[in-house]
């Protein structure tokens, strides 16, 4: 049974096809957001978040002048139910995009993400110079009480100008990984999200810590 409203799926596909990006509210309900944040707490208590790196598996580098977020990769086989449900929804988006946009997406990789106060991620593209298997980037935001003074907006650099996306709870932002440059503006509060990429080939995930 479909758990993502068909109308949302259509909106994602239409917006991606016409503008290379899509922003959808209420992709997750308030209850789903809460359940996922509880999983963040567990991983944080166990010290599982690590400073994010830049580059692909063979060229990993930590550069705090480029990005300052903390991540934990999602292990799909051992994901807790709330995260499993999120992945099932992403799977539905993936299948819908394959049917309607012929993207040939095979799978996805995703991580829990925390931007502590003072963190940002400078302007970049999500495709690595050494590999271009990331086709669609997606970020689902989990910030229940986000206020403009918290910052941390996602800025998308588009042909017609920049767009800032507030990281509010339940919202899904996605965009073509190969063309849309973007950055995360300085965050003044803790900023929580699930970040992932739809890939056009199966990958070896064993390097993911
Ligand atoms: O969290 C966001 O809004 C974007 C994150 C991002 O650009 C990335 O992790 O590559
Ligand atoms: Fe990115």
TrEMBL record:
Name by which UniProt lists this protein: 2OG-Fe(II) oxygenase
PANTHER family per record: EGL NINE HOMOLOG-RELATED, HIF PROLYL HYDROXYLASE, ISOFORM C
Domain of life per record: Bacteria
Keywords noted in UniProt: Dioxygenase, Iron, Metal-binding, Oxidoreductase, Vitamin C
Cofactor(s) it depends on: L-ascorbate
UniProt source species: Fulvivirga lutea
Ranges where the Fe2OG dioxygenase domain occurs: 106-200
GO biological process, one term: cellular response to hypoxia
GO molecular function terms noted in the UniProt entry: ferrous iron binding; L-ascorbic acid binding; peptidyl-proline dioxygenase activity
InterPro entries with a match to the protein in the record: HIF_prolyl_hydroxylases (IPR051559), Oxoglu/Fe-dep_dioxygenase_dom (IPR005123), Pro_4_hyd_alph (IPR006620), Pro_4_hyd_alph_FE2OG_OXY (IPR044862)
């Amino acid at each position: 049974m479909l758990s993502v409203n068909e109308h949302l799926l259509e909106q994602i596909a239409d917006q991606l096809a016409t503008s290379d990006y899509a922003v959808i509210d209420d992709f997750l309900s308030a209850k789903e957001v809460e359940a996922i944040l509880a999983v963040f707490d567990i991983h944080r208590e166990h010290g599982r978040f690590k400073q994010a790196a830049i580059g692909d598996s063979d060229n990993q580098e930590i550069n705090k002048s480029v990005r300052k977020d903390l991540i934990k990769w999602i292990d799909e086989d051992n994901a807790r139910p709330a995260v499993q449900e999120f992945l099932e929804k992403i799977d539905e988006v993936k299948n819908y995009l394959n049917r309607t946009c012929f993207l040939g997406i095979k799978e996805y990789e995703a991580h829990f993400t925390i931007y502590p106060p003072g963190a940002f991620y400078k302007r970049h593209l999500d495709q690595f110079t050494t590999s271009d298997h990331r086709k669609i980037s997606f970020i689902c935001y989990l910030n229940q009480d986000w206020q403009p003074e918290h910052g941390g907006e996602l800025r998308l650099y588009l042909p017609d100008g920049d767009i800032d996306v507030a990281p509010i709870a339940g919202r899904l932002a996605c965009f073509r990984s190969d063309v849309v440059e973007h950055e995360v503006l300085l965050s003044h509060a803790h900023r929580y999200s699930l970040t992932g990429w739809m890939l056009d080939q199966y990958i070896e995930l064993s390097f993911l810590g």
